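pasting Ribosome assembly protein METTL17, mitochondrial for the record, 446 residues
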Amino acid sequence: MAAPAAARCVRKFWGPRGGPCPLRAFTTIIPRVSQVDNSPDFLGNVPHRRHPGVLHLRSVRLPAKLVKAAQLLVEQSTVHGLKDQVVALTNYLWSRKRPLEASELQMRGQQLEQQLREKVQPRTADASSPLTDAEEEKLQRRVLNRLRKTTYHWEALRYTDELSLVYMAARLDGGFAAVSRAFHEIQKRVPAFAPRTLLDFGSGTGSVSWAAHGAWGQTLQEYLCVDSSAPMLALAQRLLQGGSESPQAPLFPGVYFRQFLPVSPKVKFDLVVSAFSLNELPSLAERRETIRTLWRKTDGFLVLVENGTKEGHQMLMEAREIVLGCPHHLPCPRLNPERPLPCNYLQAYHPLPFRWNPELKEELFSFLILRRGPGAGEEPWPRITQAVLGRAQHVHCHLCCADGSLQHTVITARRHGRDLYRCARLSHWGDRLPVTMPPGDAVPGE
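structre below
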């Protein structure tokens, strides 16, 4: 969450930071132990394992009808070596990077040329003689060869019927789990939010619509799935029809498929989502334009989900900067130039019941939630950024705080009270600890 001054930007930021929550009564002040609220009614009738900062989900299960439809599609397919293709595509997508900009490639080439030129032609007090034409040509070849070996070669993925099926088998379940976790965050912190319209950019297999239907199916009336790949849209439509090849009534109504975003600027949606799609855009300029377009079409929440890698996290922070454009918002403390670390989360889920899948898997992902509206009156509770380490009579928590700092806190029952200690011990990676930390302070006890 941003610093208090960021409220003037009238936008909220969730994900790698904390965010708004009306449960002010649960706030605990630390590190001044005398101010810790350890009264018997600290949590009321709420058990410690359900304290107001709990946001994690237990293992996610795909809807039974979706699982059945996916199994039917695989049974009907003629794809050979599906397991090997699933593993290869999964590894490729996880290691995928953003396309390198032409200006950055040129700068790398110039730096490399200078380094190689200094080795070939060492500098002395006297002016060096110029290289011969043959030596210059050899130097340029070495520069090009080195660039080819050290530069990531981004290529656009062309989803054919076969590749779309492989993608479904590889990513339908994990993508559904990650998006479900992001939607759960909104449900927990803004329970009154009841969207009527959804826009899913880069919809792929349609997992976002399935997750949104599970969360807000009673109020959602329109699901607009936008994907540039016609085979992928056809596969998503078949999943919605239960896997049948012949036209059937959809398993839930109101879903529409398009290859392009709505042109009219007046068309807006209560919930706009882009999940694992930003990396498929060929340039920074196109990512910027797409993010701006998605934000213009957002009437409520914009949800962005990417891989839990450095690339995924950096793309989300890039999108955050594009949307917010506010100097009062603090940079993510994990984007340290010396040692950048991704801000990510784990979500357990039951994968599709294919023979190569275990009973339970975990999805590592990063997400960003932006909401239109004022940011005043929000509790700056810190976010737990790593697994909580419970030790004998004390708990280690790594927190991302509202002042833009990362804190390693040690909480004990003796110094901080039994309630806070139990809340911390029963918290998980991604939860928020219901405490107020003065700027620059951390929980004592180390």
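Residues 161-189 form the longest helix (29 residues).
The mean pLDDT is 85.
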